[in-house]
Amino acid sequence: MPATSFQNALVGRAAGVQVTTSSGQAGATPAIRIRGVGSMNASNEPLYVIDGVPVVAGDQGNLSGSYIGSNNVMNTLNPADIETITILKDAAASSLYGSRAANGVVLITTKKGKQGKPSVHLASSIGFTPSWATDNYEAAGPQEQTNMLYRIFYDYRTSAGQTPEQANTYALGQLNTKFNKHGYKFATAGTTLNENVIITGMTDGLVNREGTYFNWDDAYFGTGIYQTNDLSVSGGDQNTTYYTSLNYTKDQNRIKINKFDRISGRANITQKVGKHTEFATNVAIARNGQSGFNDTRNTGANYFFQVRNLLWPFYWPTDYKTGLPWTARYGSLAQNNVYYNDRWDNESITKRFTINEAITLTILPELNLKSVFSFDNSAINDHLYYSAIHYNGAATNGVVNETSANISKLVSSNTANFAKQFDKHNVTVLAGFEAEKNKTSFQSATGTNLPSSALQTLSTAGAFTASGFDYGNAIVSVLSRVEYNYDQKYFASASYRRDGSSKLAPETRWGNFWSAAASWRISGEDFMKDLEAISNLRLRASYGVNGTLPTQNYGWRSLTNYTNKYNGNAGGFLSTNANPDLTWETNYTTNIALDFGLFNQRLTGSVEYFNRDSKNLLQDIPISGTTGFGSALGNVGEMNNRGVEVELGGDIINTANGIRWTASVNASFIKSKVTKLYGGRDIIWYDPTGGDARAQYMYREGQPTLSFYGYEWAGVDPANGANVWYVNNPTDAKAGDFLYNGRGATNSFNKANYKIIGDATPKVYGGLNTDVSYKGLTLAFNFIYKIGGNLYDGGFKDVEDDGYYWERIRAQEVWDNMWTPERKGGTLPLLRGGRLNRPHAVQHPPDAQRKLLPA
Amino acid sequence: MNKVKILLVCAVVIGFSSCSKFLDEKPTNQVDAGTSIKTPADAQIMINGIERSMTNGDYYGRNFIMYADAKGGDMVIPSQGRGNDGLYTFNHAPTTGSYSGYWSQIYFILLQVNNLLQNIEKLEAGGATGFATYKGQALTLRALMYFDLVRLYGKSYDDNKDAYGVPNVTTPLVSSAQPLRNTVAENYTQILSDLTTAAPLLVKTKTNGFINYFGNIALQARVYLYMKDHANALKYAEEVITTSPYVLYTNANWVDSWKTQFGTESIFELGIYPLEGDLGLTSLGAYLRKKGEGGSNVLGWYMASDYFLNRLKQDAADVRWGVMNDDETSTALAPRKGSLYKYNGSTALAGDGKTTPTAVNIKVIRLSEIYLIAAEAALPTDAGKAATYLNAIRKRSPNLPAATAGTITIDMILDERSKELFGEGHRFFDMMRLNKSITFNDEVIGLTVATRPKTIDRTFFKTILPISQTEINANPGLQEQQNPQYNQ
Q: What CATH number is given for B39-248+424-479 in this structure?
């Protein structure tokens, strides 16, 4: 399956690993969660380790406030260079990576040369994405849209006491005012609420648009095309091996102006010098280019939401009277981006190089010293330009912004490894020291008052502003591990490490982490010899402690910032709400697993139980605004994640002539709850993702970690189509304006109380994969599923709007299911005009309804 | 090989020995707060930061000014859904439309002020000098911010000064602090205490963009007027009028005064520069412009009501027409000059001397207002004097007869305030403190507003804002102290 990033290729492949991409943008950063959630502040992302060295990952661009949503720096890694990906989930396995490993480790090994003749590999592949392969939020047709808007205006007048005639006149007047200018006019046969509005074309322009509507889907979306070309050469002899590759990938997103491309190269070389020394050098260089819109829910920039919610088919990119481009903002506040897309520009270029040098020195046959030094540097240059004609550049007569971020990571690791076998006893001991420094140099300059639309260059600007600064963090670790096995049947190991981080105050920055593990290879026992069907059977158990750091570099420091310039002079302000007591979030993980292989490993699988207790959870919690800040980062409580993971895979067909059909299935059953809150008080918090703080959650002792907290929507009152909320009075279940299903209820959400109304954690999730391959052709099918748990559907509230935003498109689902006097069983409320008390999202009925849908 | 071994050992040893330094990571653009205020120059930099924070869109940059104009009956929204309608429709509830930005932004700046004052206090206790003016400015700004907060969240002083005002925070708080509300009277006591402490510390010369002595006493005049302490209001207003370097604009230069920064009337004016506090398309200038003028994102958020226009129409030659321009409902047959261009420099978007027309300074206290305060404060005791002060401003409508001791009324003064201070953040507060009713010109757009009656007075509960639910969640003691009726 073609994928821009290897992360997307992980979708559904391993138990306990969830990959979600909330953005459809080319090059966006997927979120990867291994075994549920930790705290909300500390990153939940796993640690990425390439060829033994931790690397920079995640969204590293600086345009997120602007248009490009996210810039996934891992896209610099060419999936074709990857030899293996291993996901470490339990504490013992990940102990070597210590504090950064609490959310799991994704171990990536890149390809190496093999002894033998040079091998040249050339591959080219292409993939297509249909323009809009989903029926989510399908908009109602022009006729239904018009009828719904007519009803809203009509109701707006009749509910103010006017007659049907007056209401009809008013509603038609509104429709004509709004859409005459786009070439349409409206009439009705009668004057009831239920009229089918007759839509005809205006005849006073260059064109008569009667019966034709503009298709914004086609204007904004096209077929996505993904192309990738790989060339690699590898080989080697006794002393030297090499692997080199070159890749070019181009991804034209289904959003026409969103593009991604990558050129990357890699050289992995190992060289033995004498008998005792081996040098391994891995060098990777990549350049990514990315441009286009982000597609967060922000309707200002999100094409998907615009075509589903704001861009009426009555709107055209040209004026029907003159044929000239339509430049005014449409009544729904959408803009004509068919016109404006040529009047702005953006681009994010990432140049990354990674150098990884490892020296292994074999001092004694049993003892070697290994020194690894790695330098990982990404230079990201973001360019954003709006011409003076563009609506975002109009106020300043054009604006151009250039931002560069130089992100570097230095890792130095020195370990001594001892391995000895006596008789059937095998012992290995590792001890070492590791240091890591992360630094980002940030520079940004903005110029306004641009003289020429032909030049998008800073130096032409009439006014400038600039900023530049560095920030970073450092970690120092000492680490050790002992492993023992007897006859490759009984295994035991233990590890200990001590980490210090600059992200915490000197008093709290050191943490001690350890693990212990044992396993028994049952299939190695004599009594299993006769059971030929069982080719592998192993029981494993481990327990360990690891830690998580806050995402903030300086959360413990109270800092003064100077960006509040006033009248040309520096202006200072306290910028952080420091918490000097901040400390490690610690995770205590137990893991018990059974691995099995049957029929000579034709069928393999595992069943695994895990329990993860997290203490000193790091979380930004809301605090009183009278302190000057809205939230404070602290160690707030404890949570538990536990569950069972099942994996099963096998070869269904594997013939000598090259036909291979494999299939695998995995499932994770997970439970996540808050076990303790320091101070005992509930914490209300908001979905930190998406910049759209709409989903509201609650941490409460004993409740699921991802508990939605809001008003409970009871449904639509069959008598009048009004929204009904349960009051949920904590002391009197029947308190309210009336009883509904025997419970106190109200039509006014303001009279209701919040309660926990759902849990976002699925009961089970996983994937189903099957591949059929024959001589280089692969047909793959990849299916992911989630059962149970509630989903917060922030988008639906816009397309089911029940009257607040007049000139908005509504979904077909609204037309089909809204309550009307003729359809008293309608599940969505009656469309009303002038519904001015639009409630907060989580209180809005279909949100509540959606939220309680199984996802 | 031995060399390599030694090198490796060295690397380990060096690594350990320099550990604490290696882990001492600091940003290059921020300093430890504990070391940032040491000298008067440092204090100046903190004052700069405070003033810039005051031009934030949630405060003087836009929403605070809009609050009193949107709710005062002199403005109206041309359409729903363009933004900030909630102010006009009083669509406020603790969970939605609580406009908590006022609360969070003003308390954020109060933290900055309290931090500066605490540092100055420590330095002065150690014998340092040279901080007087900064202390005076910080105290005056603190008074201004509490005055603004108590007007947003508390009842009028003469309505019920024992009702809840806002938490009176005068020192930097720890994260876990959950201060409760003080009474309106207690807030006013704090405001006056800060102002009187600050006055003698301030310079009497013009300090463009910063508080000076006259900024302080002008604010005292305003505060006393709100407290109905007419004697003190008059005393301080007259001190400004007679002893300050500020002079009124003439009729000839009134319109162009909006094209200049720090004009002769500006007692306290906040500076805004391109790329520095300039809110661009979300600035007051863009908000009050006619729809579409200067970019398709300019939506025409607010325009003048018929009531205001009729008031200004009392004199077609009123100089204040010079900042009014056609609004979106204006047609050739029925012209309607309902769009206010004070914050664009001029109706031709001239700005006030900078490269962008939205980077226009915010005039917080002007001498015209002080004359009108003097008129109002003198009225109960000396109608002749009141008429003199009123006429200094009223003459901007050259065809209206001058007020006399016999003809002057509070409504004439109030009308003059409406005309002169339109769009400057006063109208609603004036109507509240004088216990007047406000009628909204909803029929301009055929609007039926479900969230407030067409006419309100200060008995309507939404004339003060609710404490936001977010604040109450974090500070549960405020649940009991929520403004009346918001909990039902």
A: 1.25.40.390
